[in-house]
Amino acid sequence: MGMAGTGEGNPTGKFMLIGGVAFIALLVLICGAYLVAAYNGMVSADQDTQSQWGKVEVQYQRRVDLIPNMVEIARKQMDFEQSTLTAVTAARTGWLNAKTVDEKVAAGSQLDAAMPRFIATLEAYPQLRSSEINAKLMDEVAGTENRISVERSRYNDVVRAFNVKVKSFPDNMLAPAFGFKEKAYFQSAAGSDQPVKIKFD
């Protein structure tokens, strides 16, 4: 009779204990797998934004490299609007001094606002428009403006995908712990999302 109360006589208890341990282990495994998948998903989305930003940055750098030549040509026209030169030069300096992606996004928007007026003013001077050197330079600028518009739009697309991921439940609870936060969209001045049209008579 005494043997009935021992562990050997109670297999149900053992099975329940083993089942409980197995359930907890399975739960930990599922949670661990989700954390790995969530982290890898955020890393992938973050890498997409960085890759696309690199393409945007290349085109903006191309633009700022062209500006000094454009300014030098404009300065040869003595009555060229000084305020326009000052604005585009200051915007270029802001881009060059920006360190982080968010700072460069803001500086790029300032450059977007300054460029259309600068180009339109260049076009208003017959002497500048008739210059073969300036014509080639303006062609380069037009191509660069088009590429900037395309790459900037693609950048905003991948930023949107990233932001949706880090702001959606339950990833929004994990993102801060992993060091991921919402990224800034490229918001340009009104009308600057259209390619600059260069026309010569």
Describe this structure in words.
- This protein has 201 residues and is mostly helical.
- The chain has a domain at 67-201.
- Helix content is 76%, strand content 0%.
- The protein has helices at residues 11-75, 82-97, 101-123, 126-129, 132-167, 171-178.
- The chain is rod-shaped, with a radius of gyration of 30 Å.
- The termini are far apart.
- Residues 1-7 and 193-201 have low confidence and may be disordered.
Salient structural properties:
201 residues, disordered C terminus, 6 helices, rod-shaped, 76% helix, 0% strand, disordered N terminus, mainly alpha
What's the structural blueprint in terms of helices and strands?
Elements: H1 11-75, H2 82-97, H3 101-123, H4 126-129, H5 132-167, H6 171-178
